[in-house]
Amino acid sequence: MQWAVVLCALVALSECSFKIPLIKGKTARQTLMEKGIWEETRQKYPYRPMAKFIQTGDESMTNDADLSYYGVISIGTPPQSFKVIFDTGSSNLWVPSVNCNSAACQNHAEFNPSESSTFTWANKPVSISYGTGSMTGQLAYDTVSLGGLTVTNQMFGASETEAPFMANMVADGILGLAFPSLAAGGATPVFDNMMSQGLVSQDLFSVYLSGNSAEGSVVSFGEIETNYFNGQITWIPLTSETYWQIQMDSVTINGNVVACSGGCQAIIDTGTSQIVGPDSDISNINNWVGATTDQYGQADVNCNNLPNMPEITFTLNGNAFTIPATAYTSQDYGCHTGFGNGGSSQLWILGDVFIRQFYAIFDRQNNMVGLAAIA
C-alpha cells in the first residue's frame, strides 16, 4: 500500500497530512464530581501512575481520572468506530468486544467480529495490567482505519473483561504509540505497521494538544505540522527505545533546583494527564508553589494566587522548557496543580500538563523527540 507516499510526492505537503482530530472531552474526575461520588471513587480506585511503567511481562497501564483527549478510529469491514486514547506510553491497540460483560464495556462501543469480513482470530489471549484492575481478552487481526490511512492485518485486543474504573472514561479503548518491545502478546503496534506498509512519508508522528478548547487538538502521522508551533524544534535523543524516554537534567523554580537534582530519566507520555515524579520531588515542587496536598495526592492551591505563582523550568538534555502556573494548574471545583506522586520510582512522566505547552514530535527514524513552543 504505497499509494499514500506516492500521492505525497505529487501534491503539496500541506495537502498530504494524515491526521486525526483529538477531542478534549469531560474527564472521569469531572463526571464523578458532578455525580457527587469522586471522593468515594478515588478511595476505591487510587491513582497509581507508575504502574503503567513497571515491567511485569505484560504491558501495564493505570487508571487516570484526568485523561481527556481521544480520537476516533475504525476497525473492520465495514468499519466499526471507536474512541481511543492515543498513548505514547504503551504499545497495544485494544477496544471492548461484544464478548465482554464488564460494566465498563456495557457503556462503550463494542467490536463485533461477526460483522467484519476481514476479521480473523489470532488464537492468543492477552492480559494488560492496570494499577487497579486489568483488561483481559483475545488478540485478533483486522483492518484499522485512522486519519485517512488504512492499516491492514493489524493485531489488536478484543476485551472480555475490563477494570471497573474504565466505566467512567469517555474513551472506549487505547491505541499505543510506544515501541514494539512493550507490546503485550507480541502484537505489532499500529504505527510500526504504518511504517512497514509504506503509509507514511516520514517515520514520525506528532501531537498538538489544545488547552481549554474542546477542539483543535490533533495527532498527525508522517508529518510535522508547522502551523502548530513557533520558533525552532529542539531535538532530544532517546535514552531508551522502549518508551519515549529522554534525559532530564533538573527541575528549577526561580533558579533553584527543586527536583531531579543531578539528573533523571523522563518519559514524554500522551497517555498520562499529569507531570509525575518521585514523591519527595513532587512534594517539594508543590511546597514551592504554595500547594496543600491531601491524603490522595491532590495538591490544592488558592485560585486567587494563580497570578503570583512561579514558572517552572524543566531542563531536558541541556535545553530549558518553562511552563507558567496557568499550564500546571487546573480549575475543577477549586484549583489544583497537575503534579502527581509516582512513589519511590525515580522515573518521571511528562504528561499532558507538559505537552499542552510544546508541540511534540516522535521520530522513529532517528529515535528522537522534538519539542517546540506551541503557536
UniProtKB/TrEMBL annotation:
Positions of disulphide bridges: 100-105, 260-264, 303-335
EC number: 3.4.23.1
Residues covered by the Peptidase A1 domain: 69-372
Gene3D superfamilies on file: 6.10.140.60, Acid Proteases
Catalytic site: 87, 269
GO molecular function: aspartic-type endopeptidase activity
GO biological process: digestion; proteolysis
Pfam families: A1_Propeptide (PF07966), Asp (PF00026)
Function description: Shows particularly broad specificity; although bonds involving phenylalanine and leucine are preferred, many others are also cleaved to some extent.
Family: Belongs to the peptidase A1 family.
Name of the featured protein: pepsin A
Organism whose genome encodes this protein: Umbra pygmaea (Eastern mudminnow)
